[in-house]
Amino acid sequence: QIFNQHNAEAPNLEQAFHRMAQMEPNLDHDVSWFLLPSYWAKMVVALISFLCFANSYDGDFVFDDSEAIINNKDLRAETPLGDLWYHDFWGSKLSSNTSHKSYRPLTVLTFRINYFFAGGFYPVGFHVINIILHCTISVLMIDVFSILLGGLQFSNKGRRLNLAPKSSLLAALLFAVHPVHTECVAGIVGRADLLCALFFLLSFLGYCKAFRENKEGHTFSVFWVLVSVVLGAIAMLCKEQGITILGLNAVFDALVISKINLLELIRKLLYKDKALESAGLLRKGLLFRITLLMCGGASILYIRWRIMGTGPPAFTEVDNPASFADSLFVRAINYNYYYSLNAWLLLCPWWLCFDWSMGCIPLIKSVSDWRIIALAALWFCLIGLICQALCSEDSHKRRILTLGLGFLIIPFLPASNLFFRVGFVVAERVIYLPSIGYCILFTYGFSLLSKQAKKKKILAVAVLGILLINVMRCALRSSQWRSEEQLFRSALSVCPLNAKVHYNVGKNLADKGNQSAAIKYYREAVRLNPKYVHAMNNLGNILKERNELHEAEELLSLAVQIQPDFAAAWMNLGIVQNSLRRFEEAEQSYWTAIKHRKKYPDCYYNLGRLYADLNRHIDALNAWRNATVLKPEHSLAWNNMIILLDNTGNLAQAEAVGREALELIPNDHSLMFSLANVLGKSQKYKESEALFLKAIKANPNAASYHGNLAVLYHRWGNLDLAKKHYEVSLKLDPMAPGTKENYNLLRRKLEQLQKKGG
């Protein structure tokens, strides 16, 4: 056997590399596939991966993009760059109890660079970068698969040889066109997975470079081992899965570089055989390299833990219901069912969904559930593969199967719920890296079938058909990710029991003004999940606007009963109670909202409106002032302060507030209008006229703007201009209050002047 020959002779590593091509079977010999020069193979993979996702380039910001990008203050120039290192992926402080502890500062930095060069939130630039990243990763996969499938060998000149060009091309194509990658490529927040994968692969290739023959004749380069550790750290700063590359590098070293037979090693350890040297465990440099990888990984994890804080991330039962099950049996059986679903998405990526939580996958609570079959099938296949990887007499087969299983399982471990609770049930994005292992196993299986098949061309055509179907599926799925409406509606057929899907469809309809349809989906979300407080809050809001106040109050009261710290629901409940003229209860609700969310400008604004209704003018002004302190661009609060001061005769104070507001929000036409009214009453006609005209230029179809300017001209004595703007106002709004009366007064005055003139 190859293994025994290496153990007996113990040749140095360089000689082993040069001799491997002759000593091991060539996988390409059995693969019926295209043979292309390296450059053309990479061009083909790049082109096909581009075609799969090209139609997502002009998509919108969808789903999580809103929170991670649009609402993330870390992207804006006013946020110091240093804050990125202390905030999570969503822009919250890592020390916050509500933080999900997703620490990805380098990914956020790329978003910030995108935002800077685009000059704002324009999604095209964000999408283009994601597509380029996936194409780059797919091209790198040719080099990675050539090593994993063909072995690591170098020429006499130190150039790495590709001994499996056909197999590596097939595996790279399988990876490039896999539909499960659509979420990572077409969804902008998927950049975390793409960047992580990029540096993950670079770390692996860097580790392989450590074994290239150098002039000094050293068996390996410590420098390149350390480079791979640094690249692994960078991968982890893009997404947490990146750290797993250090474990995979160690597995690769043991299997490919040191050629350890795992089964023989286990036997020797069990029987306490002292001759571990012959098993390859103490082969020159292996323990030293693994020690470097372990020390590097431990240091990275320690620093990450210190920055994150000692508290675990906070998730709710709806995010991951199995992890909250009291029974260990229920937790274990459901975790394994989730693994089988992930495996099925790799095998048959037809039913894809942006979110698999909230009842999409009901819990398995007994062994009589037919879904147990999926677990049995998964473990039957895994155990069979593991047995072959450990016990096969063919060292080439052992190596490929072990590496395939390693790349399939190890990158998935952070998402497995084994070490800590995760905030999802199934997530397509987390199998971007594990799909590398799937592609290895698929390609190896294809080579075995090709070896046995009499009509190899038919088999090759079948694989081409799979690739073509995947390309079309990628294009279709990418088009669904272009807008929230298409994305959310596509999930209704996949996860009809998912309350979040119905909630998101309803929210999208409500944002477009279709309240009647939105109500239907919000009600279904609440039916599917009677504790879905966000659906109750949004439904209550719509019912409030439709003046269905009693049902709105019931829903909002239930929401705050289920989640007592839900500040938005408390505020909305206060608005409903205010409309029902239950002022004391409304005031209490507003203050409860502020108690749970200290910086809540909208709540202070609504509290001010309540105080204004109660003629508590000082309290109203203080509430609105708090709103503008917390949110200086809060136009409604500024406007209400100006109007209240104007109505109470405090013209000088109203003018001062108006000028202060316009300094902060210089292009707000409603503030111009309010201040112009104050200046007109103060007989500062020229300045008032200028502000009215500026407001009309910004919003020419506002009847009140023309009407009040006409009143100004009327007072000022510019009767012709007054007549003109009264007529424009009445044309825009024939029912404008007071305008018709003022216009009739002006006409009578003009008639009297004409008679006197006559």
Walkthrough of the structure:
- The chain is mostly helical.
- The chain has a domain at 32-308.
- Helix content is 66%, strand content 1%.
- It is built from 34 helices and two strands.
- It has helices spanning 2-9, 13-23, 38-53, 65-70, 105-118, 123-150, 165-176, 182-186, 191-209, 222-238, 244-257, 262-270, 286-308, 328-347, 372-391, 395-409, 435-452, 456-480, 484-494, 499-511, 515-528, 533-545, 549-562, 567-579, 583-596, 601-613, 617-630, 635-647, 651-664, 669-681, 685-698, 703-716, 719-732, 739-757, and strands at 153-154, 160-161.
- The protein has a two-stranded antiparallel ribbon.
- A hairpin with a 5-residue loop joins strand 1 and strand 2 (160-161).
- Helix 10 (222-238) packs parallel to helix 13 (286-308).
- The protein starts with a helix and ends with a helix.
- Residues 1-23 have low confidence and may be disordered.
| Percent helix | 55-70%
Largest sheet: 2 strands, antiparallel
Gyration radius, in Å = 34 Å
Mean pLDDT: 88
Assembly state of the chains shown: single chain
Question: Helix/strand-derived class?
Answer: mainly alpha
Entry summary:
One of its GO terms (cellular component) is endoplasmic reticulum. This protein has helices at residues 2-9, 13-23, 38-53, 65-70, 105-118, 123-150, 165-176, 182-186, 191-209, 222-238, 244-257, 262-270, 286-308, 328-347, 372-391, 395-409, 435-452, 456-480, 484-494, 499-511, 515-528, 533-545, 549-562, 567-579, 583-596, 601-613, 617-630, 635-647, 651-664, 669-681, 685-698, 703-716, 719-732, 739-757; strands spanning 153-154, 160-161.
